[in-house]
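Dear colleagues,

For the upcoming journal club I promised to circulate an example of a predicted protein-ligand complex. I picked one with 1,3-dihydroxyacetonephosphate because it came up in last month's discussion. The inputs are reproduced below in full, followed by the predicted structure.
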Amino acid sequence: MSVDRPRPLVAGNWKMNGLKASAEVLDQIKAGYDDALKGRVDLAICPPATLVAAFAEKTAGSGIGIGGQDCHAKESGAYTGNIAAKMLKDGGAAYVIVGHSERRQYERETDADVRAKAEAAHRTGLIAIVCVGETKDEREAGRTLDVVRGQLKGSVPEGSNGGNLVVAYEPVWAIGTGLTPTAADVAEVHKVIRENLAGIVGPAEQAKVRILYGGSVKPSNAAELMGVADVDGALVGGASLVASDFLGIASAYRA
Ligand code: 13P
């Protein structure tokens, strides 16, 4: 990794997993991080919203950031069941994932929705982790780059910069399947994301935006993925629920 690259970020998306007792996993991650990784890679854990405040309290000052998995575009109001960016921030979160493919698919979120959520995150001072990625059909139809370009253009708000934006490339077909794109495929998409970011956040800021790869990242494939140009870290699902796996991945990504 060259000196002008941003420090890698390995983020765990716990999805709809985790109870109070899962604080034990966080303790193990924190201990491993303190031992060998602190200062060399940034970590983030995005637990379910019920655990954000307790996790943030536990990790305060540790270098591990806590994040939400979604937020509403509005600051407050009659939106039963939703959570505002400000509430996550109030609970101690530093990050929020927006536009995860599971939300695009199951909650029918559009690029415009994702952009509004990222704007809400930015207004509140949260770092938005904006997810993009093609489906299997789109890849097979040769549309991957067009899809990713379109999602970026539609989902990344004005005012984004290296400090408040992280982009996660997560091919939908690689999530939870054990399948991963080849290193060459990841390199191709990340290069296009970087080039397109220049047009969105400006030429100076694009180099500072961390572009994560996500989709079946494990300790066994992390080193190869991290070796790919323009891969600045990982967004990890299943493997982030097991401290040793998450730490194994983070070790591969440390600068
Ligand atoms: P897996 O690592 O379980 O494939 O999930 C990836 C993901 O969706 C992270 O946001």
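Two points we might discuss: The pocket of 1,3-dihydroxyacetonephosphate is lined by residues 13, 100, 170, 175-176, 214-217, 235-239 (CB under 6 Å). Strands lie at 9-13, 42-46, 64-68, 95-98, 127-132, 165-169, 210-214, 233-236.

See you all on Thursday,
B. R.
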